[in-house]
Amino acid sequence: MALGLPDAITACLFDLDGVLTSTAVVHRRAWRRTFDEFLRPRGEPPFTEADYLEHVDGRPRYDGVREFLTSRGITLPEGEPDDPPDADTVHGVGNRKNDLLEAIIRHEGVTPYPGTAPYLRAVQARGLSIGVVTSSANARKVLDAAGLSPFVQVLVDGVVIGRDGLKGKPAPDSFLAGARLLGVSPEHAAVFEDALAGVAAGRAGGFGHVVGVDRTGQREALRAHGADVVVEDLAELL
Fold it and tell me: Are 92 and 54 part of one and the same domain?
């Protein structure tokens, strides 16, 4: 099993935030501030780590807003994609989070995890195809800032998901789209995910191997959602 993958695997589909780059932490900060500022005037308890993992992590931005607010019994009008960030709509709340995220990335930059570049170089050297599949609409900026764009042959991000009307994770649509663009069938592609919704999407899509990347101490939950193997960093697969 070269690269920690079955021999039949010819393509790798990586989630971005929390798998290749540490931006999952930045997303979490932006979500917490956005929701806390929304919840506080309504007398609601603050947004928690459990809220993030269960309702937001790995999902497209507006799906995350809907899922979390529904869990609190709050319903907002959908609004429009260009709603201002102070609008009390699903799109407005999502846009506030995105503005905060972009500001953090501008000021703090993006750092890949230690094992990311070595693993991507090894995958590339073996001749396997590389795609990134992420719910983030900021993926191109993150990949460029982290110096990872040269490795990536195909990108399915939040922009593509919205444009093509794909269902977000835990549905497998975005990963299946990535496999199609790389010209491989799911059984010959491996999915790398840190989010429970993403691992579930990899399993639901019939992919040949699903790697759970445990950055937050949820090893057993990743396995329960369908990971074939769980690592703390991609370097463990080398």
Answer: yes
pTM given for the model: 0.78
pLDDT tens for 147-157 read 999 999 999 99
> What gap in Å lies between CA 88 and CA 73, rounded to an integer?
15
Choose the catalytic residue: 7, 15, 144, 228. 15
Q: Report the pLDDT value the prediction gives residue 216, as an integer from 0 to 100.
A: 86
Cα 119 from Cα 232, distance rounded (Å): 13
Last residue within a domain, chosen from 108, 126, 150: 108
pLDDT in tens, 139-149: 998 999 899 99
One-letter amino acid of 24: A
Structural domain that includes position 63:
25-108
**CATH number of the domain enclosing 143:** 3.40.50.1000
Annotated catalytic residue: which of 7, 17, 144, 194? 17
pLDDT at residue 1, as a whole number: 66
What are 234's two structure tokens? 């991609």
- 75 and 142 in a single domain? The answer is no
Residue 8 shares a structural domain with residue 42: no
194 is catalytic: no
C-alpha atoms less than 13 angstroms from C-alpha of 216 in its C-beta half-sphere: 19
Q: Give per-residue pLDDT as tens, 179-196.
A: 999 999 999 999 999 999
Is 157 marked active-site? Answer: no
Please give the C-alpha separations between residue 66 and each of 34, 73, 76, in angstroms, as whole numbers.
14, 10, 8
What's the whole-number average pLDDT of the chain?
94
